[in-house]
Amino acid sequence: METALNQTFKTKATKLLGVNKQDAKISKTYLFVSFVILLVGGFLGLAQGLNRAGLLELPSWLNYYQILTMHGVFMLLAFTTFFTFGYLYAGLSHELGGLLPKVRKIVWTAFASKIIGAVLVVIPILMNEASVMYTFYPPLKAHPMFYIGLVFFAVGMWLCNVGAFIQVANWRKNNKGKHVPIFSYFATGINVLMFFALIPVAVEVIYLIPWSFGWVKTVNVMVSRTLFWAFGHTLVNIWYLTATSAWYVIAPKLIGGRRWSDTLTRVVIIALVIMNITGGFHHQIIDPGISLPVKMMHVFMSLAIGFPSLMTAFALFAVFEKTARKQGGKGLIGWYKKMPWGDVRFLAVFIGMASFIPAGAGGIAQTTNQLDTVVHNTMWIVGHFHLTLGVTVALTFFGISYWLVPYISGRILTPQINKLGVIQTWIWTIGMIFMSGAMHTAGLFGSPRRTSYTTYGDHATALGWDPYMMCLAIGGTLLIVGIILQVYAVINMMFFAPKGETEFPIAEAEENASPTPYWTERWGIWIIVMLIVVAMAYVVPLTEFIVNGPPGSPGFKTW
Amino acid sequence: MTQLLVGLIMIIFLALPPVAKIMESVMIIHMHMQMPMLIIAGFLIAKVFQERFPGFFDKWNRNGLPGIMLFIIIVSFWTLPRTMDEALNEQSMEVFKFISLPLLAGIPLRDSWKRLEKLGRNIVVILFTILFFAMGWLYVDAPVQLCNNYLVIDQIILGWGFLTTAICFVIYLGYVFFVDPSKYE
């Protein structure tokens, strides 16, 4: 009882006094590292784009594949995860009355582990000993240090997950029978998904280490690819779920509205957690060794993930329309005028969200075997994930930064930075339209991915890709301008903006909301359902790959 | 009514020849996806039966035991290699599969589950955990084809499907026995 009272007091105190200083330091550090990585990764991306367009000859000591690997590792693994944890822990601290001291210790340990991991990963890439791209598919063999670094990075992520679980469990013990507040509920779902998604990739990395040392001669390539994508696809959806949390919870508040159905929101989270890991299989839809009926089944399992996304699209546009009409918006389309388009916190998030319509549609196309066969190893796929990660996720993260960074820094978002943010958002959007559009189109014409600049002996088809590669370079250049502006804005809001109070904008539940059923809180059950679904999905290919396994492949260094 | 409709649509969809053919072409999908989906369809249909014939269920399934026994018998029957083979070879067995799993397994499961005490439910899960481990061991370890219609690799996959599902049941039992919900709820 006493603890419960303390907790309530702490919760109220945090809400009244603003951010907890110690917790803010955690989020600030994570976000600072995240945006520094974005800056470096952005320049690497620019170098890649200019090289692919034939405009930049890379020096002999830094080749295309090193840059490609580093760009992928920086943007896909580091930028996203550091941001996600900085954001989630800020929310957990805000909603659950400050982080527990032991949770803070865990999160700092996780930070150290991730930094050590990142350094260990980058060193061999710089030495040109690990140009295996961020997917590190065997039989491409990297230096052992690369894989050991990944282990440290994964341990860091696990520790962050455990910290979040302890925090939420403690809150639940002190608030018996209550629903976990919605932001923390999102955080729980994201952490559950990440915790379990890391298991297959950890198994893969652990058996790649002895192989990379040469203690084991061969490796089962198909098992490795399958384990990787069980993680890889889920990672994509972890970013997506993180972005979704801002769409459901934050965006309604920014436009002066209320959240959509609390039950629907929680059901969407549960559905995404249960069905996600199995979706990894559609990344292997044209891999050999998997029978067609099994691939067919997986199409359904992958498309199932689209269902909660469609629920999300419905819910969010309903919130926008409802709010805009309350504010005087009229007409079928006219209500859009009432949205706060001049507010970067909304604009960036909205564009991120809207871009998921073509991005999701492209994803559904790629899930289909016949369509994927046309585009799988082409630039189309690169265009697709620049649309999903580069726009949907990145712009949502940028939009979040315009209130989160001032919130944790005890500063405010000035009109100047807001204006800069609006400009940045448009530059980013136009840059991505150019770059991702060019990638999609060149991909349809057969331009391969994961390939440095070549004209294939001035072959006419390859020369036909050049105009699109030029568009790609133009887009890439706009994007680096966007990144510089974004990082400038973050640094300004973190260290130089005027001091003041910024709110953590969590929208209230809708008026006259029906009570949310308590079964949504039974994560134990949902995790078991998820495990059964994962077991069912992966037992078929994995057993086949292992029982009928080939002798395996020795390592190759093709660069 | 919606549940009845969803359940019936599920059965019709699963019975469509191309759908049935593709699902039955992979042993594990046949047993671990098609059959549970038929049970789920019955589970959904059950509500209408419960509402229309409350007296029947109260009379014959008061404590849930008869219903759960029927469920266990039907499900166990369909875990046998021979029954799968017969479903593929004999049209009448295939029809029986599409009738027995929704009506004799799905409906009694829904009616019985709420009537069972916590202990009863846990015993059912324990029973299926043991059954799944046993069936898993049988299918993984059998050196010969147990079903004429499927290859040995198919039955090994099915065996691992049983084993992994049994492991999930063990995790569930661990959750039920070690996590005290009164601490949180």
UniProtKB/TrEMBL annotation, chain A:
Q: Where are the transmembrane segments?
A: 30-50, 70-90, 106-126, 146-170, 182-209, 229-251, 263-285, 297-320, 346-365, 385-405, 426-447, 467-491, 523-540
Pfam families on file:
COX1
Limits of the Cytochrome oxidase subunit I profile domain: 25-497
Task: Say yes or no: keyword Electron transport present.
Answer: yes
- The keyword Amino-acid biosynthesis belongs to this UniProt entry's keyword annotation: no
Any idea which UniProt keywords this protein has?
Electron transport, Membrane, Respiratory chain, Transmembrane, Transmembrane helix, Transport
Name of the protein this chain belongs to: Cytochrome c oxidase subunit I
Q: Which organism is it from?
A: Neobacillus kokaensis
UniProtKB/TrEMBL annotation, chain B:
Where do transmembrane segments lie in this chain?
A: 61-80, 122-140, 160-179
Is-annotated flag, keyword Transmembrane helix? yes
Q: Which UniProt keywords apply?
A: Membrane, Transmembrane, Transmembrane helix
Q: Does the keyword Membrane apply?
A: yes
Domain of life assignment = Bacteria
* Protein name, per record: Uncharacterized protein
